[in-house]
Amino acid sequence: MSTRLLCVSTPTSQIQVPPPPVPASGANFYASTKGDVLDVASDEASVDVQTLLSSGCFVILGQVGATAARPTYPRAGQQFIDVTVGTLLTYDGAAWRDVTGTSH
Predict the structure, then answer these.
(1) Percent of the chain surpassing pLDDT 70
(2) Closest CA to 62 of 85, 44, 45
(3) What value, to the nearest 5°, has the Cα angle with vertex 37 and ends 12 and 79?
(4) Alpha carbon distance 75, 95 (integer Å)
(5) Which of 33, 47, 93, 103 has the most CB atoms around its CB within 10 Å?
(6) DSSP code string of 74-92
(7) How many secondary structure helices (H) and strands (E) does the chain include?
(8) Nearest CA to 50 among 60, 39, 63?
(9) What is the reported pTM?
């Protein structure tokens, strides 16, 4: 699963997310222009998404993934971009539904 972000303002330079202390790995760099859509992998999502959001250049479009990656315990109103069925779904408290109300 990943988090999909929309670039709403072109950053003046690449945005660097410092590497986590453990395990030691390199920093991630992101460069986008206004209108770009960026998917941040779930293993990077916590720090990377927060850093990108705090830059003021990105907004969250939603979580993205295959049907099997849908949240296990969704809350009513939660949205998920399901790439298996190819649509945005909203959880109504009992089922995942597309904009027409069809259950998926």
Answers:
(1) 88
(2) 45
(3) 130
(4) 10
(5) 47
(6) PPTT-EEEETTTTEEEEE-
(7) 1, 8
(8) 60
(9) 0.68
